[in-house]
Amino acid sequence: DTAVSQTPKYLVTQMGNDKSIKCEQNLGHDTMYWYKQDSKKFLKIMFSYNNKELIINETVPNRFSPKSPDKAHLNLHINSLELGDSAVYFCASSPYRDSQYQETQYFGPGTRLLVL
Amino acid sequence: KNQVEQSPQSLIILEGKNCTLQCNYTVSPFSNLRWYKQDTGRGPVSLTIMTFSENTKSNGRYTATLDADTKQSSLHITASQLSDSASYICVVSASGGSYIPTFGRGTSLIVHP
Q: What is the rounded distance in angstroms from the CA atom of residue A89 to the CA atom of residue B85?
């Protein structure tokens, strides 16, 4: 069974469209994250949710809106897509809030978004 | 500004050889340092996690060291295998507040037969 799954794996869309990426974890973890990896392979955290509560919101345009319907899901909705949004988006989860409890983060396989 | 610098940017070695990857950071106040392995087209996988009081941590053929005084870490890979070909990413988290991690750009390792 896949621990952290994301759908879709590939997403090709036109500039200006709205799209969503879904993430689900079956590990029973409390905390979930969204990361963006740019073309230079540089990973940057976007959001973190702990028990459906937003705890990290980095300097991300408000066109990006995370939604956590329950502890096992953290979806990412993107409005008015721009060329610069093209990247690989990774979802991750960990048992507790990161760092303080030194818990390992488990990453999903990534969603490759290409905006044309 | 919190930063994590990794070197070398890329490395090519022969199968069976050892290698060492470097990570320097300026993250403060320090909470923990992690090394991840990311295979091409996949998500990162955690190798080691170290806190301020830990100097070394091993995971099979991977051994990470931490010098909190000089703010340096290294990842040593022993008896490399073809499957070690991947990007190795150093991540340092600050304590207090939301524990936002700072990622290095990674070292791309290629192991040749």
A: 22
A81 and A89 in contact (C-beta within 8 Å)?
no
Compare all CA atoms of chain A with the CA of B4 and give the residue at the minimum distance.
A42
Look at A41 and B87 and tell me if their CB atoms are within 8 Å. yes
DSSP readout, A59-96?
S--TTEEEEEEETTEEEEEE-S--GGG-EEEEEEEESS
Distance (Å, whole) CA B92 – CA A106:
16
What does the block give as tokens for A104? 């390992």
Question: Which residues on adjacent β-strands are paired with residue A43?
Answer: A37
What confidence tens digit (pLDDT) does each residue in B42-73 have? 999 999 999 888 899 999 999 999 999 999 99
